[in-house]
Description:
Elements: H1 10-14, H2 17-23, H3 29-41, H4 46-62, H5 68-92, H6 101-130, H7 138-146, E1 150-155, E2 161-164, E3 170-173, E4 177-182, E5 193-203, E6 212-215, E7 219-223, E8 227-232, E9 239-245, E10 248-252, E11 270-272, E12 276-281, E13 284-289, E14 305-310, H8 311-322, E15 326-327, E16 337-341, H9 347-357, E17 361-365, E18 368-372
Parallel strand pairs: 5-6, 15-18
Antiparallel strand pairs: 1-4, 2-3, 3-5, 4-5, 5-8, 6-7, 7-10, 8-9, 9-12, 10-11, 12-13, 14-16, 17-18
Helix pairs in contact: 5-6
Amino acid sequence: MKVINQFNSAEDLLLNTSFREWVLKKGDTASNAFWNKWAMENTHQSNSLNTAKAIILSVAAHNKSITDEELEAEIKAIQKRAVSLSFKTENNFGKSENKNPVFSMAKKVAGIAAIFVLAAGLWYFLQSAQSSNTAVSSYENFNKANNDATLEYINNTDTVQSVSFPDGSTALLSKKSKLSYVNEQVKNFYNRAVYLEGEAFFNVTKNPDKPFIVYTNDIVTKVLGTSFRVKAYGSDKQSTVIVKTGKVSVYKKKNFDKALLKPNALTDGLLITPNQQAIYNNEVLQKSIVDKPVVAAPVLPGAFEFYEAPLADVLAKLEDSYCIHIIYDKEIIASCSITAKLGTESFYDKLKLLCKSVNATYEIVDGNVVITSHGCN
């Protein structure tokens, strides 16, 4: 085992067998004591520690069939490519380290690039291995990889089951659904990562520094703090994410590992807002509006009553109330006005009535409403 001061990067940690065993709760007593002490005494290495842990847990969740020997061999092979990249980068900047301040920056860039090569290489390796083991679900792989280190909730009742997480977040687990997360995270709940098979409604405590992540067989949902529903039964080909409040970012499972390098970013996935949903089917992930949009912001009585109001103002009121983007040509509808007393009609009925009154049509495109009009006389 390396001595404590020789672990200076996530790469060093990833390449250490005892570290990987510690993360996966497979180490012996002495090894566990060593790494617990190392983590406490090297808080300045928390970024490297967290990056390495996230990659290892992702490896375990992706595919249990990969043996430690196979993973060790692949890491060493990728390390050689990373070291080669770092060496070439340094050589390209010459040997004048003290005279050229750019050289120091180049070394830092080379180190970051080496870690990226390592993470990307592991991602590619896992995807190749996973293609030959698709019969076993990610949920089952996760539980097997962590053995007794998981807390699992299985709802075999006919009612919704409430689940509370250590960070204050909650989930309402639907019938015939199950959910797991790593028991070693009960104290700190570091990754805020859960694994779902079935359906659950999540209400997530906001923490900008630690996104909450929900894994399913085909998609991954990443949030900073919001409420949303995930539906992904193992027997269904289609998976759905519906947002009630806030924003979530949804990824294809095979693309999510790339997002590990951007822990606080939401814009690198399919961004979903209230009254929108992400639907994954036949390996296609797309955005749409939910079947029954609800008013997302409080409205006063009579809020949808209009008298000779400009159509643009009416559409803006509808957009703000339902948090659904409505696209139209302002110049074309500039002469259109609306007199209407709307109230409890559904969002789509309101749209139909408005469009009919000005001889316009609408369609849903990528989670937005697009209105087509030829103007008003």
